[in-house]
Amino acid sequence: MRRTPVVAVATLAAAALTLTACGRDSGAAADTATAKDISAGKATGTITVWAMGAEGEKLPALAKDFEAANPGAKVNVTAIPWDAAHDKFTTAITAGKTPDAAMVGTTWMGEFAGLDALDPTPKSIDASQFFGGAQKTTEVDGKSFGVPWYVETRLIYYRSDLAKKAGITEAPKSWEDLKAMAKAMQDKAGAKWGIGLQAGGTGSWQSLMPFAWSNGADLTKDGGKAYNFDTPEIKEAVDYYKSFFTDGIADKAAPATPTTEPDFVSGKVPMFISGPWEMSAVEKLGGAGFKDKYDVAPMPVKKTSSSFVGGSDFVVFKSSKQRDTAWKFVQFLSDPKTQAKWYQQSTDLPSVQSAWQDSSISSDKKLATFGEQLKTAQAPPSFATWEQVVAQLDSQLEKVTKQGADSSAALKSVQQQAESIGTGK
Question: What is the CATH number of the domain that holds 191?
């Protein structure tokens, strides 16, 4: 449960399979025309930077490279625990005491931009260098505020050795393939459960939405100005997701604290959906040779293959008295060489597409699959009320998976509550 800063709420609850406008594939059109540009020359002065979790602990070492290249500049990094981050930011915004720059969870972007706290992205930072879905997480009402710092997406993890035992030699390519493989894992490979899926509750929308997006779902309507949950595409995804529980393939009584890694290594649950951090986790627990016993696959196709794009953005606050140096630091973080080095230090995947050509990343076939999925990965809309609204979806999904509630009624309830709450605009 490391990382995925976009969903601090899910991280706090430790119930999610850990971490925004749908179906848009390019960030190049983001409005930066009114943003003041970055000056030429070296950075000078001292900036304060906030970052969360492991990233906050490791960023000072990377910042030394920026200081070495800009002898007149100093970067003071403050590491903040994730469970205190959101309140610390909102308090600082209210008091006018924000840092110069910061790592920000992507689902906070709409809220903070709505509070007029973020500085628009300068036009000299090329939005097209980032994965399109990740770039969209920086955009609010068509204007970019910051850059995608690092990214992650979700794939199907599966025990290839047990799949072979079950008579399956290829990764699942369709919804039907995935369900058939999960069932075969139970019937022929001795698995207690075919696949590990979250049965509703906090953060479960992250497990559901890759199926919905792969079915062509769009979470917004009216030109991206309103929520859009009560649709045939999402209903079909919910019904498919529900079927794993009603058919006894997934455990509706799974513990709130995930036991993903030990269950995967033991073969009790030989399939799950999660991000790239799980590779090192399962390989460490599985021991020597385990990396050859599993593989990863893109989300199965219904109409297409799409998944969730998470990670973190980096922003500059409007109140910064060192705006130019702050943006030069963000620009430094977006350099392909810096991105590749940061991956080596943190295993955070680069948001800049060209950084994936670095041999430390390109030589790993499993990582390459994550890179391919990132090309079509999506994220939720950057509405200020997203966290509040999606809690309603989590709650209704739990009723569907655990109690067999009707999916149409559940989604209608979510839509009504979303319209009542509004987008925060």
Answer: 3.40.190.10
Q: Count up the domains in the chain and report the number.
A: 2
- What's the CA gap between 284 and 290, in Å, rounded? 8
Please choose, from the candidates 246, 248, 273, the residue with its C-alpha nearest in 3D space to the C-alpha of residue 187. 248
Whether the Cβ atoms of residue 181 and residue 168 lie closer than 8 Å to each other: yes
For residue 45, the surrounding DSSP H or E stretch is strand 44-52
The token pair that represents 27 in the structure block: 């960030």
Please, what is the Cα angle at 372 between 368 and 375, to 5 degrees? 145
| Each residue's pLDDT tens digit, 187-211 | 999 999 999 999 988 889 999 999 9
Helix axes 323-333, 336-346, angle to 10 degrees: 70
Judge whether 379 lies within some domain. no
- Whose CA is closest to 245, among 188, 211, 194, 186? 194
Whole domain around residue 228: which residue ranges? 155-307+384-421
Determine the Cα–Cα distance for residues 105 and 420; give it in Å rounded to an integer: 25
Residues 163 and 301 in one domain: yes
Same domain, 199 and 336: no
**Could you report the per-residue pLDDT of 247-299, keeping only the tens digit for each?**
999 999 988 778 999 999 999 999 999 999 999 999 999 999 999 999 999 99
pTM of the model: 0.86
